[in-house]
Specification:
By secondary structure, this protein is an alpha/beta fold. It has helices spanning 18-29, 41-51, 65-79, 102-130, 142-145, 151-171, 189-192, 196-203, 214-225; strands at residues 9-12, 33-38, 55-59, 84-87, 133-138, 176-183, 236-239. The longest helix has 29 residues, at 102-130. The chain is globular and about 50 Å long.
């Protein structure tokens, strides 16, 4: 079984590094053309260049509605279509409930949830016309089980799950599938800062006794973008080494 995405164009937000980069690399390895997105155009172009000759860099802040609309138009102009949309970019502004500021709530909900909604609304127009589309939203296990100090982040990720299920129901008749991938602890800049002791404590809660890699997430996203996932929509795929079950 070989996944072949040649001829498809994928847009992955937040793909200059971390999980998004792993997703972009996995999609590119399956032959997809790629829009690599970050806030800074130079970083995005550099990342695109090192990922694939079929990748181009684009700048966008997913917290800003106008910026997302411009991004979708620019990617459609460059590649002619967006077949696969991966809403991966996400931010945190952690604090315990009583210290959480309205601004921290708004910033996280705007980037993580409204950003995905705006991108889906804009990109799904073309998918509807072509009667083919894959929307994959990157949530988190925190959106399923909650987490102390992350009310805003957990709400945004839980919101993504509700958004995805609704999109799946609304767009199924046009052959547009929408699913969620919910990672657990993945090796990124964030987890690299953890001490060895903190990692050991963490491993005791993970049956597979390791952190996930961006490629572990990318593999599931690439499967969901492929023809092998043609009968799957509205589902949540947890990629966490068995931590939450
Ligand atoms: P990182 O913070 O490591 O990567 C961030 C990426 O997003 C970079 O490419 C960055 O690009 C881009 N980015 C940041 N802010 C914005 C913005 N406002 N607009 C557009 N792009 C932006 O994130 P991770 O790889 O850790 O996480 C990716 C996703 O996975 C997030 O949605 C996160 O919530 C989720 N997740 C992560 C887990 C983990 O263990 N790391 C666990 C569960 C879920 P640049 O700096 O070039 O702008």
């Amino acid at each position: 079984m070989k996944i072949d995405l040649s001829g498809r164009t994928a847009l992955v937000t937040g793909s200059t590094r971390g999980i998004g980069r792993g997703i972009a690399e996995t999609l590119a390895a399956a032959g997809a053309r790629l829009a690599v997105v970050g806030r800074d155009i130079e970083r995005a172009e550099d990342a695109a260049q090192s990922i694939s000759s079929q990748a181009r860099g684009f700048a966008c802040d997913v917290g800003d509605v106008a910026s997302i609309t411009t991004l979708i138009e620019a990617v459609e102009k460059e590649f002619g279509a967006i077949d696969i949309l991966v809403n991966n970019a996400g931010i945190t502004r952690d604090n315990i409930l009583f210290r959480l500021k309205d601004d921290d709530w708004d910033a996280v909900l705007d980037a993580n949830l409204r950003g995905a909604f705006v991108a889906i609304r804009a990109a799904s127009r073309g998918m509807m016309k072509r009667r083919w589309g894959r929307i994959i939203n990157i949530a988190s296990v925190v959106g399923i089980v909650g987490n102390k100090g992350q009310a805003n982040y957990a709400a945004s990720k839980a919101g993504l799950i509700g958004l995805t299920k609704t999109v799946a129901k609304e767009l199924a008749s046009r052959n547009i599938l929408a699913n969620v991938v919910a990672p657990g602890f993945i090796e990124t800049d964030m987890t690299a800062a953890m001490t060895d002791d903190a990692k050991k404590t963490l491993y005791s809660q993970i049956p597979l006794e390791r952190l996930g890699t961006p490629k572990d997430v990318g593999g599931v996203v690439t499967f969901l973008a492929s023809e092998y996932a043609a009968y799957i929509t509205g589902q949540v795929f947890v990629v966490d080494g068995g931590m939450v079950m």
